[in-house]
Protein 1
Amino acid sequence: MEEEIKKHSKRIYRTLKYSKKIFSEKTTEIFIEIFIIVFSITLSIWLHSRSLHSHQQKETTEFLSDLKEDLNKDIVIMTEKRTQMAKTIKQYSYLRNLTEERIDSLTNKKAGIDISVRIVIRKTNNGNYEGFKSSGKIGYIENKKLKKLILEYYQESIPSIEEAEKYFNLRLGKIDDLIFQDKDKKKKFLDPVLKMTFDAVIQIAQDNKNNYNFISKDAKEIISEIIKEEKK
């Protein structure tokens, strides 16, 4: 392209300096050469833009395909954590409602009381998203709705549930401290501080359970939108 522009520029120069043609003929020739140069540059820019756009969309397609796999993994993990929250609610509700009579009955039967403290350990599959975002390519996604859903998922929904999980684990640590203190069984489970901590953890677990459900729905909506893009 550069050589073509040089070639036509030289023709303009020669026409202006050496041509013995009349002014109108010179003007016509120069206009034609300028038109050719402008057209060549415009065509080159257009072809480059098309090539660049095609490359960007290829990268976007690959990213969305990988993202779909990540979201499906997230949904599986969210389902597991929802089950964990349900078990936590059931177990701590039982412990919260233990009465003196019930504890005596269990003691007489030499029955143990099931106690477990399971913190939430969950990893968001966000490697592909972070890589695509950090390279400044999120703007390649032309579907505005899809782009908005993805950004909301990773920048709002996921950080929100991560903070809730941290708080949940913090309260579990309090239960862990209270339960494994050197106290007799009755004194331990009738401790009002422990009962209040059970209440707090049960409520947080219920909130987390609901949040896992909402976030799974968000992930499914993104997947649905990606599938629509793949069919275009």
Protein 2
Amino acid sequence: MAKPVYKRILLKLSGDALKGRQELGIDPNETGRICKEVMEVQGMGVQVAVVIGGGNYIRGYEAAEQGIERSTADYMGMLATMINALALQDVMERMGAQTRVCSSLSTREVAEPYIRRRALRHMEKGRIVILAGGTGNPYFTTDTTAALRAMELGCEVLLKATKVDGVYSKDPVKNKDAQRFSKISYMEVLDKGLKVMDSAAIALCSDNKMPIVVFNLLKAGEIKRVVMGENVGTKVME
């Protein structure tokens, strides 16, 4: 029987992934599907950490553009990630998983503080670790958080869940001639200005040789296929 090619992964989920076809908030059906797929991978013996965004409620930079002071706007975004983390925890635990929410912000009534060694221990014990609150600092995205935590937790790969099946030369929705890359280097991503993750996240992964796999979360079973080493999405590496 085939075995997973990765033993420890970090999955980056956008807040938008949880809203399904709704304009805002959380779609229980879509969130349940995603949680089930994460749990299936964890059930295969893979240690899993999840970094969740908050874009289904608010994005710091967008709120800043509307007149809110940037640091305040970013903290609002961090709090939105906490809402999503608690939702993921509730759904997964009702499905039978063991989880821990670890927050970079002090929210001790609902989550434990993010401490690297404690998070590692949770993963080693078979718990799904849900990371909320971004880095705990304004001006940093959850993409950067994902890159940072992937390195800190000794993950073998960073899985970037998106709405398209990889990295394209152009926006595939607007350009029918857009080319999908099966593999691309960090420098090509930066040089071509491709919107994979923000430049700080790409630079962090490049400096620490952390491979990124960009894949389509909307396609059922893709997380498992990536973990099993199938040719899915786009691999960003040296």
